[in-house]
Amino acid sequence: MSCLREHGAVESQVDVYRVPGAWELPQAAARISALGRHDALIALGCVIRGETPHFQYVCEEANRGLGEVARSSRAPLVFGVLTTETHEQALARAAEGPANKGWEVAIAALEMVALYRTLEER
Question: Distance from first CA to last CA of the chain, Å, rounded?
């Protein structure tokens, strides 16, 4: 949110939807995209590796599903799902500063919105 605010977004015009887990991100993104009310979608999440193959299944489906939505959506969808080995790695990627992955995907969303607008003007 701080990145979006810093670049002129009005917080009351940013919708935040929460889902139970990364597996549910593609489902929610598809429904939200279909509403046609958003300039961009930013999918954020984190999957931390455990002791079972569940990590791989969830990561692959989140990636595949969000990619499918991104290819069919009129608004850009930016992928911000962290896949980490530990909780500490996840916190490090979400900490304030230049390594913040949420900031990076927010910038990417803003850049994609600008690109889409440029393409529509041509």
Answer: 31
Confidence of residue 52 (pLDDT cuts 50, 70, 90): confident
Helices (H) and strands (E) in the chain, counts: 5, 2
Measured CA to CA, the distance from residue 53 to residue 36 in angstroms comes to 36
Tell me, yes or no, if 7 is annotated catalytic: no
Task: Give the pLDDT confidence of 83-97 residue by residue, as tens digits.
Answer: 999 999 999 999 987
- Tell me if 57 sits within 8 A of 94, measured CB to CB: no
Which residue is catalytic, options 7, 38, 54, 87?
Answer: 54
CATH class of domain segment(s) 2-121: alpha beta
The amino acid present at 90, given as its one-letter code, is A
